[in-house]
Known about the structure:
The chain is an alpha/beta fold. About 45% of the residues lie in helices and about 15% in strands.
Amino acid sequence: VATYSTNVMGTINVLEAARHTPGVGAVLNVTTDKCYDNREWVWGYREDEPMGGRDPYSSSKACAELVSAAYRASYFGAHGHRPVALATARAGNVIGGGDWAADRLVPDILAAFASGRAVSIRNPAATRPWQHVLEPLGGYLQLAERLVLDGASHAEAWNFGPRDDDVQPVAWIADTLARMWGADARWTQDPASHPHEAASLKLDISKARKRLRWHPALDLAKALELAVDWVRAMHRGADMHHHTLAQIQDYQNLLADRNPHGK
């Protein structure tokens, strides 16, 4: 109930606030790649694929997408009360330092390694579109800028995911992190029965590549390396505000090197 209250009614409350606030000109609602009706396809889902979900989280995020589409058509579109550019963004599984959320793969793995425990993995064969959190955040900022400058042509759904070869199974993530961490880092498979989880999920990012000229700058190994580096820095007592800003600056420098003319 809390999941639906937050993801459905929470979205409605935010959009109602935007609808009644004259100074709001653009809204970007970040949902999730789990909003798609997952058919266990080996190819990526495009933005016009059907919404769905077999679990409350996925289903409620699909509902949030439908709510956003309805508000765009009824209140924010050409026939609405006023011109608010409303877009939604769907990203893959984000990783990076400072993520303390429960039941998330990379934080659970690194916490176990740091304490010298073997981490228990529910579904090592499941594949997900893993990416460092700075990647989609950069995409969101580009999209938000377009919404402000030219909202009508960008007020729609957008995927922000990794490159195809960075869609890897959970076991690959666990093995790579164990190798990076060293010492006696290890994992085991959890034999218990768990609720349904999609075995395969992948995003098609062709639209963002072509229309926003956005594309991933980091490969998955580098993304994992940054997450490990952040956690190791924290454990040795580093100034994490400074360390985090340094990682962000390094990422921005990488983008600048790859796009010297700002394109």
